[in-house]
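In pairs, describe these two lines:
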Amino acid sequence: MNNMKAWLEILGISTKLGLTSFGGPIAHLGYFHNEYVRRRKWLDEQSYADLVALCQFLPGPASSQVGIGIGLLRGGWIGALAAWIGFTLPSVLAMVLFAYLLQGTDMLNAGWVHGLKLVAVAIVAQAVWGMGQKLAPDRSRATVAILAAVIVLLWPTAVSQLVVVLAAAAAGLFLYRNTTAPAVANMQTSVSRKAGAACLLLFAGLLLLLPLLRGIFPSFGIALFDSFYRAGALVFGGGHVVLPLLEREAVPSGWLSGEQFLAGYGAAQAVPGPLFTFAAYIGAVAGGWQGALIATLAIFLPAFLLVAGALPFWALIRSMPRAQGALAGVNAAVVGILLAALYDPIWTSAVRGVLDFAVAAILFIMLVFWKLPPWVIVIAGVLGGTLIY
């Protein structure tokens, strides 16, 4: 009974956060801190900081992984599932509804839909701006970022992004090999090291086996699961960085058009919860509610496996300076990959002339310098697109 009460409590609180957490991953972490640390005291400050550090170290949706980790620490495996469902489901439902709305009418060329594409320009430009200042602040990391952008643009495949990330990790090992590792709290978890190792093996096994299964048993469901699992497994840096990975997987496959892709990405800025639920929109456009379910489960599964797998080993990993150096290199490459996505497909598809540029620039200023919330930017973008088209 106590376990059931704890699971329902986790589900209720995470659902409230899923309905109210606007503003992207950084804002989500602020909401989590206020709810879980300050109000409910489920974690102390140091444990929360170290859980955030772990989830930023891992690929995947950082804010969702923090929520999953808190649920895991509080209520075991079912607690982790309850935390994820509550935080994710409201956004998933909103994105699936938008997908059906867009498909059921001839609105793709409407001015307000083009406005959503301009919102995407401003949002991703803000992400590049902020992440560049934080993750590529010096000459060596800025160089890694620019080289990553150039390589990804000249070699536009999903494989190129993986190669760039691995090369950046190697560069970080060399450039930042003397990085000092900070102290880490000892978080108590119900996941044993054996179970953690099994989760990490399953994570790696699926990453290797799914492409083989896709080749042997060609079907829409396996192809969808493989693409979205790989996207969730390989993206570093949060929700915005998944954009180029998903675009490379979804648009060339014919699951949706470039215009549908950008319209959905713009709409994703207007809903609360994790940006990774953009996968539900793509899945719904490609294959209805079944496609939305497959895409959502696939893109978030790596987050579960990595958090559960790494948590028992985090104190050991965090104490290794070389791991810190590799992460510094990967984070710089992430900035470059996102910069490349800002140019292609976002800029090349959305900015067609001077008026488009003017609207995108105004939205960027509103977001970065006026500090207005993303939902206000979405409304302004929709109005701007309606006025100029």
In short: Residues 62-104 form the longest helix (43 residues). The radius of gyration is 20 Å. The chain has one domain: 91-388. Residues 91-388 form one domain.
